[in-house]
Amino acid sequence: MEEKAVKKGIGWGGKTLKEMLEKKERLYNQTGSYYGLKQLPLAAADPLKLELFGTRLLSAIIAGREATRMISASPQIREIAELAVALYTPEGDCILQSTGIIIHIPLIGQVIEWMIQANYEEEGINDGDCFTCNDCAIAGMHTADVYDIQPIFWEGQLIGWVGTVIMEAEVGALLPGCMPPGATDRFVDGLKFIAEKSGAKDKFFKSFERKIRYGVRTPDVFLLNRKGSLAADIAVRQQMRKIIGEFGIDYYMAAIRELIELERRTQLERVKRRTVPGRFHSPSTFEIDMQRTGAPPHHAVNRITLVPWDFHIKPDGSYFIDFDGTGSWGWHGCNCSPSALLGAVCMALTQTISYTGKSNTGTFLSVTMNAPFDTFVNPGTRNVASTNLFAWPLNGGPKFMAQQSHAFFCRGYVEEVRCANTSVSGGAPGGLTGKDHYGRDYSFLSTEPAGALGGGAFAIRDGVISEGIWQPDTDMGNVEIWELMLPTLWLGRRLLPDSCGHGKYRSGYSLISTFMIYKTPVLAIQSGASSQTDKIYPNMGMFGGYSGPSSFMKLLVNTNSKHLIEGRKPLAHGIDRPGVSDLEQNIRGKLTVETKNLPWFEDITKDGDMLQCFYGGTGGGFGDPIKRDPALAKKDLDNGLLTIERCRSIYCIEARYDAKNEEWVIDNNKTNELREQRRKERLKKGIPADQWWQKRRQNIVEGRMPPLIRKMYNESLSKGKRWPGEFRDFWGLPQDFIFKEG
Amino acid sequence: MTGFSYPREVIKDLIEGKLPWFETKSIISGYKDEDRFDKYIEILQEKVPWQEKILLPLTDELYVVEKGVDRVVKCSCGHEFGDYRQNWKLKALIHVQDSKEEIEELYPYPGAPDPEYCEIREYYCPGCQSQIAVETVPFGYPMVFDFLPDIDSFYAEWLGKPLAAKKEFKDLTCEFIRQNWRK
User: Fold this and answer.
1) What was the pLDDT predicted at A423?
2) Quick check: B56 and A410 CB within 8 A?
3) Where are the alpha helices (DSSP H) in A88-158?
4) Of A220, A262, A576, A618, most Cβ neighbours within 10 A?
5) DSSP annotation of A357
6) CB contact under 8 A, A646 and B105
7) Residue A192 phi/psi, 5° resolution?
8) For residue B156, what is the nearest residue in chain A, using CA coordinates?
9) Cβ pair A184, A331 in contact under 8 A
């Protein structure tokens, strides 16, 4: 007599989740279609019903997200919406997602898949359970982003999951803040939740709450965020049950598969209709100064890492990103990972080509990557710190968006073209610790730059002011709310003149904020945690436009500000033009200028000290600057964004100030002369490319470049398979060429 | 949406950055017009002072054009850069911003790029001196071949209009260097 399997799973149709996962993967591998769907019967029979169904799911997810914003304690959530919510299949594939920090959407799915593979089902998964994860060895962008995940059951069967991500400002690491620069291994980079069951019956366990209470420096914020997150999950789950009640469970289970397959097909079709196939190439670098972070001596190694990549748009409409030639990973928290790369792809595609609100796993199935093991994009150990895995995706990754933009341009969809910008918290107080203005032990960070960066120029207009590409509905937040959380008073938020990526169309401008340290006797400050672009700027401009500037911070301690306030004298509010800073002019004190990110300022600040932050990472310009429309330059002059000196020297536009009418007047004749003169200068200073090649080749053969650059190239030459050959071929070097070091 | 289309004048204004923002926004938010590429090429072809057929715009100044059985990169001024499969920058004029003064002109605040580590390369057209590209790359990095289009696949498989003289989809940059620059 044939023995029947007696084990009953919690999944759909009595299957185990593992069986469901294996089946889903098998069907995709066999057919190339999601869940093996060759036909889409629901879409064919009643497309409007499927559309309505999808819209209902999406509105439930968005409503859940908004509920969280109202509950959460952190200004990062309430003010700048550092959260996102998504709905998943039983196997962990994203069906639909909210807006927000969408970089995490596929990664929450990876956590679900990991739990299935790790046999969580055997340990018990019940209706009302909550699972919490921030361990990037499983999936994630950094420890600060915490995922709270709940299963969705229908009549005793698990039919899906809902997940919410919230970024925490303090995670209980070796050093305060959520991105401690001196943490080099995972054991000190923050409190870890290894996809642990954190609650049941829609309540967190007391033990989980105690772990947070004793494990992080700002437990109230952390706990309230967890409750906000759980509220979103419950709200979405309740709505799902309502929707299932309306459409029927059979329809639900079939429709979620069709929505993913439909999106997979649509994404391929979009690519074919909006781009041009071919190969794009771009290098980017990642600089890290570990010697000033308090890292242990064997990890306190400064390095520059090269990440050259090829981006292919293939004739079948799929994307392939090849990271061959990427240099070594290091003992710091800013390496990348395949999981983080997938997050970056989600962030990019959802905002540029799959922006209809239907982006899901189907979108990402069309992208494959080569992230070689034991490199910066795929470290050879899981023990390395993961404080900033998103650092490179946000520094170099946006160039991928610009490459796709290049393809839009070639196809004629110029309105979709925009240059890249690094999208990081460069120049921000990445860690603040000491005492706050209420006299309590304190640890936090500011994510004000989320809405403070200048966006890349477009092909048909200037870039936008105030954005952060990782956060589609970005916002700087209200100063008054930040001031409740940070022991700093905002004295000014301004745009920094002459600080864009110049071009025929310029990038947006980034903001500079000026603060007075407020009512604290002791506050240590770490510079922005993720923008590692100090000596080498990323290649952000397009078609003759320049990259925008990087960030900087100025700290003034031991000031006479109290005396100035008493005397009602001017303080500092911003910088009105290069070389003229009211911080240095109006206030006495010890000044430190910091252009690197990660290090702590050596001076400890106190009430009355001053801090000024330029949130660089500004986007690239588009086109030849001397082709800029003088009317656009006039607008910038009138608005105080552009000085006449740079208007002349970069755009070759002459203007005079009409004091009576308080406006700038363009001198067209002189402008034409300046532009003609610039063309002649270019003819004189531009040398034929072969002359440059001979000269630079000689530099390379003789190794005449800084040691860090030689080391950077050697790492890539030893790690790569394709790229080293191309490098050596271009320079006519022997196939075993490496730079001499030391 | 099948057959969705915008009037030619709208596309022309859009390309030139003259379309009012609310109309531009509605195009960004709306359905994409399927005949965009044809209209785009038609408009661009009228703008350039030469006769060769544009196969693909490469940048706002450069085009891949049909020249007999060859396909070459051509500037809007008429200057030619050779086979589209070799990086057009090989035949451009290049200037590297390597002085502190030049770099501070562009980046006047703390944290400007360090020319020992970073090259800011400007590429000019020898014909009209337009600045066609700027590269900001680590010192010693090869010229960046921004985009090698797969033109035959594009025309045959995506547009359904195969081109007559098929070219191998292959980067010929290093071959050019080997034959012309290496001594």
Assistant:
1) 64
2) yes
3) 105-117, 120-123
4) A618
5) S
6) yes
7) -105, 135
8) A315
9) yes
Structure tokens at B70: 């060859």
**What is the C-alpha radius of gyration for chain A, rounded to an integer number of angstroms?**
27
**Long-range interactions of A706-709: CB distance < 8 A, separation 24+:** A706/B116, A706/B117, A706/B139, A707/A741, A707/A742, A708/A302, A708/A303, A708/A304, A708/B117, A709/A304, A709/B117, A709/B138, A709/B139, A709/B140
Distance of residue B105 Cα from the nearest chain A Cα, in angstroms: 7
Residue with the bigger pLDDT between B124 and B29: it is B124
- How many CB atoms neighbour CB A498 within 10 A? 23
Task: List, for residues A143-168, the tens digit of each pLDDT value.
Answer: 999 999 999 999 999 999 999 999 88
Question: Which helix (DSSP H) or strand (DSSP E) does residue A280 occupy?
Answer: strand A278-288
Please state, in angstroms and rounded to a whole number, the distance separating the CA atoms of residues A106 and A90. 14
Coil vs helix vs strand at A25: helix
Looking at residue A531, its pLDDT comes to 62
The β-bridge relationship of strands B80-83 and B70-75 is antiparallel
- Give the model confidence (pLDDT) of A397-432 as tens digits: 788 889 999 999 999 999 999 998 876 656 677 788
Residue A177, pLDDT score:
77
- Does A388 have pLDDT greater than 50? yes
Cβ-contact A391, A286 below 8 angstroms = yes
Q: Angle A644-651/A630-638 helices, nearest 10 degrees?
A: 160
**Nearest residue of chain A to residue B114 (CA atoms):** A535
Dihedral angle, C-alpha A348, A351, A354, A360, nearest 10 °: 70
pTM attached to this predicted model: 0.95
Query: What stretch of H or E contains A277?
Result: none
Mark out the alpha helices in A188-322 (DSSP H runs). 206-215, 219-247, 249-274
Contact B59 A543 (CB under 8 A): yes
Dihedral pair phi/psi, residue A48, rounded to 5°: -70, -35
For chain B, give the number of residues. Answer: 183
Neighbours of A12 (CB within 10 A): 18
Q: Which amino acid is at A513?
A: S
As given in the structure block, the two tokens for residue A585 are 């002019």
Please say if the pLDDT value at position A3 is more than 50.
no
CB-CB: which of A279, A285, A534 is closest to B148? A279
> B56 and A276 in contact by Cβ < 8 A?
yes
> What are the tens digits of pLDDT across the range A645-687?
999 999 999 999 999 999 999 999 999 999 999 999 999 999 9
Q: Residue B17: left if φ>0, alpha if ψ -120 to 50, beta else—which one?
A: left
Q: Which residues of B touch A406 (CB under 8 A)?
A: 146-147
A513/A276 Cα distance (integer angstroms): 41
- Name the maximum alpha-carbon separation found in chain B: 57
| ipTM greater than cut 0.90 | yes
CB A100 within 8 A of CB A65: yes
Helix, strand and coil percent figures for chain A, each rounded to 5: 40, 20, 40
